Each structure stands twice: as C-alpha cells, then as structure tokens.
Here is the input.
Amino acid sequence: MATEKNNETQNEEEIDIITLTDEDGKEIDFEVIGDAEIDGVIYFAMTPAGAEANNEGIIEYVLLKLEKDEEGEEVYVTVDDEDEFDKVANFFDDLFDEDYDA
Here is the structure.
C-alpha cells in the first residue's frame, strides 16, 4: 500500500491528509482525525477527506496501523484481529467522546 503525507491548512488549523492507494490502484485522500500508540503499535483514525456527518451527527472513521513492509518502508494496514480492533476502536471512541463532550 503506497502512502503520501501532505499537510493542508484549513481555517488556520493544520490538517494531516494521507493519500492511500487501494488494492485496485485507486488513490484516496484521508484526513487523520486521531493517532495513538497502544501496546507499542501506532494506530490512526481516518475519515475520507471531506467526509460529513450523517443525519445523527456521526462521522464514521477507519482504523489503520503503521507497519513496515519487506523493504522497511512504512505502510498503513487494516486491523484484522477482532480483539485488537475492538481495543483500539474503544480507545478512539472514548477519546472522541471526550473531545466532543468538553
């Protein structure tokens, strides 16, 4: 999976945009809405760039983790293990709840 990181400024707030290439070779821009190191692994919560909240005010996000491929390059990969996914998703859900309740 190829990645490219750009920093864009919007409303004087820095936004991290990461361009990911899917299995079909299509490039998709994602906005990083959170990151955390959990048990020595770095995870990212991302939304497709420009995503808007649904009717209930919820923006869905994807979870990816940072790993190194065979050549030592950093790549973003999906979290396939169900227990690992639940742990990380709960962390980000709690984090985002705190941010929006404050």
Remarks:
- The first strand starts at residue 3 and ends at 10.
- Helices lie at 82-101.
